Amino acid sequence: MARHLADRFMPNECFVCGQEAGSVLVCEACRASLPRLAAVCPVCAIPSGEDLICGTCQRTRPAFDATAAALPYVFPVDRLVQALKYGRRLALTRFLSGLLEPFAPPQGAAVVVPMPLHPARLRERGFNQAAEIARPLARAWGVPLLIDAVERVRDTAPQATLPWLERRRNMRGAFRCNGSFAGRVVVVVDDVMTTGATLDELARTLKSHGAACVVNRVVARTPSPV
């Protein structure tokens, strides 16, 4: 009853269109009209026109085994992600994590690992958006969430500022595992995937510590590497 009264007299405004949205942050109409991904590479989730491994992954297979992305990183998805990441709109985490819930992890001894932030970046931002998205996901899937199992030990230059070919070099040696992942299926959660260089380096680090399989679950995928 209290929730019904709150929805009626103090409704949220839809983050996308600004209309009354009741208890949710994105109204049903805007949620239904969000752009979708179709026919993507099963390894890197790049839109490819067909559900086959793309030429890039065939030539140079990344360390991760598969990627599932909920949405393309275009308007208004970019606004939603940036509002969480830079605008501290933490209420959006539940909505964004809900988009990933259908992409349940493969069977096996699965654990969820959010993409870690370097301590300096974490102090500056105050929270790790990947970890906030991962918390409700791990609960929904019923698998352990390992927040501190992997550290980012190098405060690398922001990937968005670098040319595509330099991004892999920028990430080398960026992560450290605190313990073994022997035999584990590791589900890495992140907000946006662009070239995949950061996710590739993290997967490489996880597999060097015994991970049997590393799969990515990302909210948004850029339409093409930039």
Features:
four-stranded parallel beta sheet; alpha/beta; 226 residues; two-stranded antiparallel sheet; 2 domains; globular; Rossmann fold
Would you mind describing this structure in some detail?
Residues 130-219 form the Phosphoribosyltransferase domain. Belongs to the ComF/GntX family. With 226 residues, the chain is of the alpha/beta class. Helix content is 34%, strand content 18%. The protein has two domains: 1-33, no CATH class; 38-221, Rossmann fold. The protein has nine helices and eight strands. A four-stranded parallel beta sheet has the order 3-8-7-4. α9 (197-208) links the parallel β7 (185-193) and β8 (213-221). α5 (92-100) crosses α7.
Helical residues, percent: 25-40%
Biggest sheet record: 4 strands, parallel
What distance separates the N and C termini? 49 Å
Number of strands: 8
- Major sheet: order of its strands? 3-8-7-4
- Which fold name corresponds to the CATH topology of the largest domain? Rossmann fold
Supply the CATH architecture of the largest domain: 3-Layer(aba) Sandwich
Strand coverage percent: 15-25%
Any idea of the CATH class of the largest domain? Alpha Beta
- Which structural class do the helices and strands define? alpha/beta
Average pLDDT, rounded to a whole number, is 88
